């Protein structure tokens, strides 16, 4: 400590306990001229820190210290391996690993994809925590100290920073290279876990035109909820049945539910298809999207006497005779019609996807 520093200090027996390190005792220039150890000791003296008990860490280079270092390094290394496994599963799917597709009845890779991600992230975080706990318990000194509370000042900020940096030095990372390397590996691998959500921008499954397309395509069969296909003679005239595309997860696709309606003879004579869609039906069957064009609610209430489909949410009504045109309520667009035909076995199949987006109007569509 410099002469000026000593001159600015006050003996404890003359002025009582020293608290706070007032700025008038030490100018910023004097504090700036001290090294970290001096600031640390000076801050402790002025702050009135009293160390009651200290349990020292293992002696440097001792067998106990080396054993603790190996345990900590192993925990951090395992955390890094779990995090790396997460990254391999996440980024490798569809590249050198099978591409996952969500389906309720899938018992293969797709069923394991999410659990493997959970195991990878969970294992990484658990072993990172284990490593930190072992490091603190086995390699850091444990001390009990008391200190009077006081207001802060420039002196306090300067000496506190020196105390914190001194604590970092006592942790001993520069000397414990094994722990430093394993922690660096774990931190890098966990960094991949943290940025994995950004991978969705690269591996975006909704490429193309997700709002304008569904699971329907040419040759895809119309099946019931239980997966059974539909023939023309399966429905009574004037009846409605909800059908789905016969693809994995087709009965769970939010935009693929379709109403297959068999018209009565008197309705057939009044049928007025929309322009360009006169051949979308097959015989006395027509198929319309089950998703209301107002707010996306499911429409399924069919009044065969009035030829109207009713949406129970906001009371929109669509006239089947006029190509499912809205005739009442807030909906402004007709229900999209699915072109249908029969396959070689006599079952209903789609001729193509819907030619327009199903569901409510969205921002880049022109209103029809």
Mean pLDDT: 79
The percentage helix is 25-40%
What is the domain tally? 2
Number of helical runs?
9
**Total beta-strand segments:** 12
Oligomer: single chain
Element-by-element helix/strand order: HHHHEHHEHHEEEHEEEEEEE
Low-confidence stretches: 1-21
Placed side by side, the strands forming the largest sheet appear as 3-4-5-6
The largest β sheet comes out as: 4 strands, antiparallel
Distance between the termini: 84 Å
Task: Indicate the structural class.
Answer: alpha+beta
Cα radius of gyration in angstroms = 37 Å
Strand content: 5-15%
Overall 3D form: elongated
Summarize the structure in short:
The chain crosses the membrane at residues 72-92, 112-136, 183-202. By secondary structure, the protein is an alpha+beta fold.
List the helices and strands and how they pair.
Blueprint: H1 3-8, H2 12-15, H3 28-32, H4 36-47, E1 50-55, H5 63-92, H6 109-139, E2 142-146, H7 154-171, H8 177-195, E3 222-223, E4 240-245, E5 258-262, H9 265-270, E6 285-289, E7 301-303, E8 308-310, E9 317-319, E10 325-328, E11 340-342, E12 348-350
Antiparallel strand pairs: 1-2, 3-4, 4-5, 5-6, 7-8, 8-9, 9-10, 11-12
Helix pairs in contact: 4-7, 5-6, 5-8
């Amino acid at each position: 400590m410099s002469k000026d520093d000593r001159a600015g200090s006050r003996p404890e027996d003359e002025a009582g306990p020293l608290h706070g390190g007032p700025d008038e005792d030490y100018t910023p220039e004097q504090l700036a001229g001290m090294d970290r150890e001096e600031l640390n000791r000076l801050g402790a003296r002025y702050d009135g820190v009293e160390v009651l008990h200290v349990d020292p860490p293992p002696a440097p280079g001792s067998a106990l210290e080396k054993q603790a270092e190996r345990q900590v390094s192993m925990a951090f290394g395992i955390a890094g391996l779990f995090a790396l496994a997460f990254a391999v599963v996440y980024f490798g799917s569809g590249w050198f690993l099978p591409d996952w597709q969500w389906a309720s009845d899938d018992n293969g890779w797709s069923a394991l994809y999410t659990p493997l991600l959970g195991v990878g992230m969970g294992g990484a975080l658990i072993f990172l925590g284990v490593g930190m706990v072992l490091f603190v318990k086995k390699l850091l000194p444990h001390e009990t100290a008391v200190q009077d509370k006081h207001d802060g000042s420039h002196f306090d900020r300067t000496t506190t920073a020196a105390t914190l940096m001194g604590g970092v030095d006592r942790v001993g990372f520069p000397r414990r290279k094994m722990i430093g390397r394993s922690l660096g590996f774990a931190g890098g691998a966990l960094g991949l876990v943290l940025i994995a959500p950004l991978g969705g921008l690269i591996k975006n499954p909704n490429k193309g035109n997700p709002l304008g397309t569904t699971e329907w395509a040419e040759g895809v069969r119309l099946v019931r909820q239980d997966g059974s296909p539909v023939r023309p003679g399966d429905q009574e005239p004037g009846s409605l049945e909800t059908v789905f595309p016969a693809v994995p997860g087709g009965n769970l696709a939010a935009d693929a539910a379709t109403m297959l309606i068999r018209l009565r003879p008197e309705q057939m004579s009044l049928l007025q298809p929309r322009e360009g869609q006169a051949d979308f039906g097959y015989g006395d069957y027509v198929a319309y999207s089950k998703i209301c064009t107002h707010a996306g609610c499911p429409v399924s209430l069919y009044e065969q006497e009035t030829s109207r489909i009713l949406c129970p949410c906001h009371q929109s009504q669509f006239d089947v005779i006029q190509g499912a045109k809205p005739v009442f309520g807030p909906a402004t667009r007709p229900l999209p019609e699915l072109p249908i035909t029969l396959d070689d076995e006599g079952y209903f199949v789609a001729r193509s996807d819907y030619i327009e987006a199903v569901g409510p109007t969205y921002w880049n569509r022109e209103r029809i």
